[in-house]
Design brief:
Length: 348
């Protein structure tokens, strides 16, 4: 079974990465929603060197931007407080503070979020918007032309390039961005072994990615299809022939339905993959509490056990190692829990 961490500032250290591989980590994910592969050369070199020191042949996955909506760059992290208002503005247009007052915005200069233009065209009064994998919830209060005023219903600290999802709404976006295409051309040079495509909706998305890999002379790279919307769930059977592995990406997938339905959907995807003989991965918040705590919750280790018992070919942690306080301990608990689950299942 493959065990993946995610590289980020918290673990971008050759010695630390070496210890993570020695504990049992077999691969690592590099999230390219925030940077391009060309500027991550130091990290990819450390990954190779650390794996070699640990006697591991590493799997390196790049997670593309794909058809995903994200907020733009913020000068500073923005604290969104429940009951306050926030203004959404187009990414490619600068608006003056005086304009924001036209729709009754309070303290607008400090509460402006740049968002993709295509998002603004889809918004309706009363609609809900989920930010940062659903951690923050906004409701549209008022709109006037290109200005959209939202009420913060669930607050939090928001930083640049965090995800955006509309409740019960899918927006049609191109499969690959220009940045994705550049990163695919760079992939082999950096030792990439697989490509994760977010928000896979239909078989054509995966066929487009495969064609792009072939054009870049990287046809041998594996395709990891991230299922994170209802369209991907509904079309899963037609996706299976075109993916090397299915990824049950529970972050955004959990934004598309009531949270209590998510475990059922995970079980259905796992069962469909098992029946078809298609490997699958489980990811998102497996050890989320360890971003701040040295010991996980009992529910988290039980979640890892469930993924193994359902037949997952791989598991992955994301922010826990990329930005958390205890990346080494995260991998220790993840690997030991997987090993314990596998030993139990062999005896059962």
């Amino acid at each position: 079974m493959d065990i993946y961490g995610t590289i980020g500032p918290a673990c971008a250290d050759r010695k630390l990465l070496t210890e993570m591989f020695r504990l049992g980590m077999t691969g690592i994910r590099l999230n390219l929603s925030h940077a391009e592969l060309a500027v991550c050369q130091q990290w990819t070199e450390w990954i190779r060197e650390a794996a070699e020191a640990a006697g591991v042949i590493p799997q390196l996955l790049i997670d593309l931007q794909g058809p995903e909506l994200r907020i733009g760059a913020l000068e500073l992290p923005l604290e969104l407080t429940e009951g306050n208002e926030v203004l959404l503005k187009p990414l490619n247009r600068q608006q003056k503070d005086s304009q924001t007052q036209d729709i009754g915005m309070k303290n607008s200069a400090n509460n402006i979020l740049p968002v993709p233009d295509i998002l603004l065209s889809e918004l309706k009064q009363g609609q809900q918007i989920l930010l940062d994998d659903g951690k923050i919830l906004l409701t549209i209060k008022q709109r006037n032309n290109e200005q959209v005023c939202c009420l913060v219903q669930r607050g939090g600290l928001l930083t640049s390039r965090k995800s955006i999802a509309l409740s019960k709404t899918e927006i049609k976006l191109p499969t690959l961005t220009e940045s994705d295409q550049r990163n695919i051309r760079e992939a082999k040079k950096h030792g990439v072994t697989g490509v994760m495509l977010p928000f896979v909706r239909r078989a054509q998305d995966l066929q487009d990615l495969r064609q792009e890999l072939q054009n870049a002379g990287a046809a041998e790279l594996k395709i990891f299809a991230k299922i994170e919307n209802l369209e991907g769930v509904e079309n899963l059977n037609s996706l299976l022939p075109y993916a090397d592995q299915i990824v049950i990406a529970r972050g955004d997938l959990g934004n598309r339905m009531p949270m209590w339905e998510l475990p059922v959907v995970q079980a259905k995807i796992a069962a469909m993959c098992q029946k078809a003989g298609k490997p699958f991965m489980v990811v998102t918040q497996m050890l989320a509490s360890m971003e701040k705590n040295k010991v996980p919750t009992r529910a988290e280790v039980s979640d890892i056990f469930r993924a193994v018992s359902e037949g997952a070919a791989s598991v992955m942690v994301t922010g826990e190692t990329a930005a958390g306080s205890y990346p080494l301990e995260v991998i220790r608990y993840l690997c030991h829990t997987v090993e314990c689950a596998q030993a139990y299942l062999r005896q059962a």
